[in-house]
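Margin note: ligand = zinc ion.
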Amino acid sequence: MVRPCGSPISSSILSSKAGGWQVQIPQRVWDQLLDHLKSELPREGVGVLLGSGTAVRYRKLQNVAHDETHFRLSPQEWVSLVHALEQTGERILAIVHSHPASPPEPSAEDMAGFAWPDAYMLIVSFHNPNWPQVRLYRKRGERLERCPVQIMH
Ligand SMILES: [Zn+2]
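Resulting structure:
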């Protein structure tokens, strides 16, 4: 079940500025993200946005799934990412993946598999290849709530 974002959520990753947008992605970061996800087509692409409230940078990750309708992170790569972030003090703002041919709605698997409590899930859909759609979700209990996201043009 997907619902709009309700009451304010935990503190630390929210940016209080900029009128209610919970996540902002600068055009430059968005372009990098989109270039990577497009380069992975027809497979799902995965990556992370780093930052707090505003995405500071995008880091691509490997999709180690063996088919085109799922993504799976490399456990080794994930561990080394988390380790690297401990060194730099950066935060994971959102875990990003693409839906090459389906709308940007979380699949049952997306819901079940998303366990990162402090991060958002960002889905980019190429359902309409001329118009990539982006949606942001946050896990609350067993549900995913849809949250606002803004690309800063
Ligand atoms: Zn998905």
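Strands lie at 2-4, 23-26, 46-52, 54-61, 92-99, 120-125, 133-140, 143-147, 149-152.
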